[in-house]
C-alpha cells in the first residue's frame, strides 16, 4: 500500500482540512535524472546508505483567497502499489504522473470540483488499472469518479459515495453511501453500476457504517458502525456473513471510548482499530483482542505502517516511532529523532529498513534490528507531503518551494 503523510499534521493532527494552494502545474520541467542532492551520496561502489534526488518538477505556488495571508500548502500525493502511477492534487487540478515525473495527464480540472478541499480522497486499485476520486459538489453531494487504465476521461460515476475500497484481484469495489450502508459494485461494464450494486446485508449491525476497510486477499470487510460508539465487526466480503465483532476499549468511568479508524494487516490475518484516545488496538481475524494497546500520536491509521503482518510501526510521543510485534504487542525497537513528531512511511523487513518523515522536514532511514540511523535527507522545508513504496526504494515529496521531487533510497554496501 502506498500512503501519504502531511507535515501540517505535526502541529495539530486533524486540524488542517484547509484548501491547498499550489498552482501552475502546466509548465512541468524535469530538472535531472540521477544526481546527488545535498546530503545525498555518490555512485561509488562502496557508498554508504543514502537518499539521492533522481527527478524534480518545477512548481509555481499561488495563494488561495480563502487561506490565511501568505499561507501556501503542499500538494497531496497518492501512489499505486505497482509503483507505476503518481496522483497529485493541486489547486490547478488532479494530475497523473509516471514514476519518472516526465509524463503527465490531467484527470480533473479544478473547475470540476471547485476548491481542493472538495476533492476528498483518491483510491488506486492494487493492480493499478482502476483509479477513483471522491469528489464533493458545491451543493454538498459526494460521488466517486472512476478511471480505467489511466484514460483521461472518467469511465463511470458512483453517486452518493462517501468512501470506496477496490477489491484486490477483481474489477469490483465496495462503496459506503451517505446512509451508512456498504455496497458492492462490479466494474466490468460502464454505466451499469447501479444495476449490479447490492447492499452487504450479512447483519443488522452493518447499519450506519462510518469507516471501513477491505482485506488484501479481498475476502473480508471490516467496518466501524454507529450502532455502538465503540462497535464494529468483520464480515465475509462475498456472503456478508459476520465473522468477528470488534469491540473497543472503555474509559475508567465505564463509558465506551469511540473508535475512529480501522485497517487490515497485509497478510489479512489481523485488524487494527484506532480509538478516540489515540490508542491502536490489534485483533486477530478470529476475534481475540491482543493487548495492551499502543499509545500513538497518529490521528489516522494511514500514519502506521505494517511489515509482512506480524510487525507494526507506530508513531508515539516526542518524535519516536515504535516497532511492535502484533502477536504479543511487545516493543521490538524504538527510533527517536530530534523533532516534535515523526511518522513511519515505509517498512521493509527483508532489507531491515524503516523510513520515517519528521516534522523537522527530514527523511530518515533506520535499521529495524539495531535501531541505528542509516541515512537522512533534509528537505529544506517543513511544509511538505510524502509517500513511499513498500520496499523503501523510492520516496516522493511535494512542497510549495521545491515542487514535486523523487528520491531513491540506496541501502549501500557492506
Separation of the first and last Cα atoms: 29 Å
Mean pLDDT: 76
Indicate the CATH class of the domain at 1-74 and 303-414: Mainly Beta
The number of strands is 35
Quaternary organisation of the protein chains? single chain
Share of residues in strands: over 45%
In spatial order, strands of the major sheet run 1-33-34-35-3
- Annotated CATH topology of the domain at 1-74 and 303-414: Thrombin, subunit H
Helical segment count: 1
Judged by helices, strands and strand pairing, the structural class is mainly beta
Q: What is the makeup of the main sheet?
A: 5 strands, antiparallel
Which CATH architecture of the domain at 1-74 and 303-414?
Answer: Beta Barrel
Rg (CA only): 21 Å
Model regions low in confidence, pLDDT < 50 over at least 5 residues: 1-39, 191-205
What's the helical proportion of residues?
Answer: under 10%
What's the overall geometry? globular
Provide a descriptive summary of the structure in words.
The radius of gyration is 21 Å and the shape is globular. The two termini are 29 Å apart. It has a 5-stranded antiparallel beta sheet, with no helix packed on it. It has a 4-stranded antiparallel beta sheet with strand order 5-6-7-8, with no helix packed on it. A 4-stranded antiparallel beta sheet has the order 9-10-11-12, with no helix packed on it. The chain has a domain at 1-74 and 303-414: Beta Barrel (Thrombin, subunit H), CATH 2.40.10. It contains 1 helix and 35 strands. The longest helix is centred in the middle third of the chain and has 4 residues, at 193-196. It has 414 residues and is mostly beta strands. It has one helix at 193-196, and strands at 4-6, 22-23, 50-57, 60-61, 76-79, 86-90, 93-97, 104-109, 119-124, 130-136, 142-148, 156-159, 163-166, 172-176, 182-186, 198-199, 209-214, 220-225, 231-236, 242-247, 259-264, 270-275, 279-284, 289-295, 305-306, 311-315, 320-325, 330-336, 342-348, 353-358, 362-367, 373-378, 385-388, 394-399, 403-410. Strand 26 and strand 27 form a beta hairpin. 44% of the residues are buried.
